[in-house]
Amino acid sequence: MLTKVWPTIKFIFTLFCSITTVQIIMNVVIHSLIRGLESMPYLYMQQILLLSAGSSIPTFILMQRDDASLLETWIRKVLHFIVTIAAIIALPTYFDWNNQFAIVISFIVVYIAALIMWEMQPKRLANQINERIVEINKEKFKP
Amino acid sequence: MRVIIRDPIKDEEDSITICVRNMTENVLRAINLIKSPSQLTVYSNNNAYILPIADIFYVESVDLKTFVYTENTIYQAKQKLYEVESILNDSEFLRINRQTIINIRRIQNVSPAGGGRFQATLTNGEKLIVSRQNVSALKEIFGL
Fold this sequence. Notes:
A: 143 residues; mainly alpha; 4 helices; elongated; B: 144 residues; alpha+beta; three-stranded antiparallel beta sheet; 35% strand; globular
């Protein structure tokens, strides 16, 4: 059980940290380097953390077992989109609609990170299986 | 565990004796491997052939017919796919989707095929899809 839960927790934590980092960098870039965006308020740390949590948690719904049924996959996808839309609406409301740009960027980061992870996980598994195949073939040809 | 292999005494029948205190999973697997039939009767052009199971690359069900694929030849089996599956050894053959059972010893490599599926490339270059539902069985058979 722990072997299935732990990678998911690690993934969500990585996602949370990466979104927080992107938002901090974005905050600095917007307010230090780009001129003419003075009307955009600073995001405080607690706001950044809230945005990161709001962006990471919906992705947690998509984490599932390898042998999950097609129905479960679709239920998870629908739930994910409902929660994501709720977060997109709720967070700008909380911030008085001033930071749509930051929120949109953070969600783009979430999706890119999730897509990369989805690409990486099967590749890692395929590599592990290929290593085992090589080992089996070595055993097969042992005298 | 010691493995003793000796030549049979004159007129003695070939036999295997397993002497263990605990019936572990590996021992059971070895027994299944020994007990499982080593040949399968298949048909091609109305001729029957005795095919060594180790030569099978994969078995596929198409339009309620069961086809047995070797490196270069396709045979037909009289049994249904699930019947062939019960004959084949569990530790060597794996159901990879609804229509196909694959000989894992003939897999050259696997690669992701999108949507949680994998593509298994056989040593003869054929490519087969491992469905998402069967990925966990694939992991298990390779001890992952």
